Amino acid sequence: MSRLGKIPVALPKDVKLTIDKGSVLVNGPKGKMSLALPHNITVEQKDDKLLVNRLNDAKQTKANHGTIRAHLVNMIKGVTQGHKIDLEIQGVGFRTAVQGQKLVLNVGFSHQVEYDIPAGVKVATPKPTEISIEGSDIALVGEVAANIRGMKQPEPYKGKGIRYAGELVRRKQGKSVTK
């Protein structure tokens, strides 16, 4: 068995779980999420724990075993605590603001860049050079953060651009004059 797949998943008291044929629905204080199960993976609930089982030992089924358990853990964490990613903006004159359902970025282009915030994600700017992305779906939060970072990735010479909080950018020396 998969090392991760055989570990039971703890189910908090404020989370309601519904297991149907081929899908799992998780309800919590921060929302609800569903997951479609592959045909050789089953999920069963015993008391306040979830067990993920596989029906055969095919290579793909073994791969799905641990993956489905990890998705369930992320879903439970998402509907109880939520997921959060912070971004930093570095550069002279670079700033950001939220206007309605749009994130407006001034990041060194001749125009402002607008990003439409998808449903299910909250974007806040506590400071003009910080972006905080929160939501219950870890994949959607990560995708939004990657899309925003992709608008102006940090460049290696001065380090200007949008980066994850705490991300180290490898710096290059630049041009040097030799005599």
| Content of β-strand | 35-45%
Q: Which fold does the CATH topology of the largest domain refer to?
A: Outer Surface Protein A, domain 3
Give the overall pLDDT as a whole number. Answer: 92
Total domain count: 2
Number of strands: 13
Shape: elongated
- Specify the CATH homologous superfamily of the largest domain: Ribosomal protein L6
CATH class of the largest domain: Alpha Beta
Low-confidence stretches: none
Cα Rg: 21 Å
Helix share bin: 10-25%
How far is the first residue's CA from the last residue's CA? 65 Å
- Largest sheet at a glance? 4 strands, antiparallel
Strand order of the largest sheet: 11-12-7-13
Describe this entry's structure for a reader.
It contains two helices and 13 strands, in the order ββββββαββββββαβ. 20% of the residues lie in helices and 37% in strands. β5 (41-46) and β6 form a beta hairpin. A four-stranded antiparallel β-sheet has the order 11-12-7-13, with helices on one face. A three-stranded antiparallel β-sheet has the order 1-6-5. The protein has a three-stranded antiparallel β-sheet with strand order 2-3-4, with helices on one face. With 179 residues, it is an alpha+beta fold. It has two domains: 9-80, Outer Surface Protein A, domain 3 (Alpha-Beta Complex), CATH 3.90.930.12; 83-164, Outer Surface Protein A, domain 3. The mean pLDDT is 92.
